[in-house]
Predict the 3D structure of the following.
Amino acid sequence: MTAVAEAPSLPALQQRLALIACGENSRPGKTQACAVHRGKAATLLRITSTGAVDALAAAICGSGHKHNRACAPCTEKAVQMIHVYNGETV
């Protein structure tokens, strides 16, 4: 019999995605996302579920960048978020 991993609850998954978007990897010991990223959590989850890296990176990065492109760190966060959503180890 194969063990099936339990899917995280949506609030837990949203919190995890918000934490990644907030810069979990760039700030050691960070355990919670800021209010801005927590507020974007539902939107981040919806975009993550589509697998659209560019759209997700743009949502994380905001629109203040030249040429309306997401920066490399936000693109990396988007890829990591999609891996987490799909239950893959990163």
In short: The helical segments are 10-22, 35-39, 41-50, 53-61, 72-85. The mean pLDDT is 85. The chain is about 55% helix and 0% strand. The CA atoms of residues 61 and 71 lie 7 Å apart.
